[in-house]
Amino acid sequence: MAIVELKPQVKVELSEILNGISQLDVKELETFFNRVGTLLAHRKTHHLSEREFELLSEINKGLPDEHRQKYLALKEKRQQSSLTEPEAQELANMVEEVEQVGVLRLESLAELAKLRGVEVKNLMKQLGIQAPLAYA
After folding, report:
1. What letters, b where the CB count within 10 A reaches 16 and e where it falls short, cover 54-79?
2. Cα 74 off chain centre by
3. What's the confidence (pLDDT) of residue 136?
4. What is the pLDDT of residue 134?
5. Residues 67-124: tens digit of each pLDDT
């Protein structure tokens, strides 16, 4: 496995770093994942302008894990016809939230594609960007 040099003379195996990452709570792990996604996109695109960096950060955002899990659970209950009235209202509110996240993401993708002079579909392919599971 690879070794990462953190500072001069301080080298750590990648497996140790991953072990440390595995101990993060969900919120910290989501933040880490978003930052790594942005870093990966940055590396793939070489030099980013400040606006491109902001757009990529917005594109890589998703629903917080607990919201996504609740949303998926409520969708499942709806499919099983076991949704209570309060749960139906909560799901309706969450659908609006999911749609808003999707709209912001698409707007950011469109703006970034325009800056780069490519179609959104091609930009997503270039950057390895896919729709989050919550939208499936």
Report:
1. ebbebbbbbbeeeebebbeebbeeee
2. 21
3. 41
4. 46
5. 888 999 999 999 999 999 999 999 999 999 888 888 998 999 999 999 999 999 898 8
Helix or strand or coil: residue 12? strand
For the chain, state the CA radius of gyration: 19
Element (H, E) at 7: strand 3-7
Q: How many other β-carbons are positioned within 10 Å of the β-carbon of residue 20?
A: 10
Closest CA to 131 of 93, 91, 99, 90: 99
From 42, 40, 62, select the one nearest 50 (Cα to Cα). Answer: 42
- How many degrees, rounded to 5, is the angle at CA 87 between CA 86 and CA 89? 65
pTM equals 0.58
Token pair for 76: 């499942």
Domain extents for the chain?
A: 27-135
Residues 6+ positions from 37 with CB-CB distance below 8 Å: 56, 60
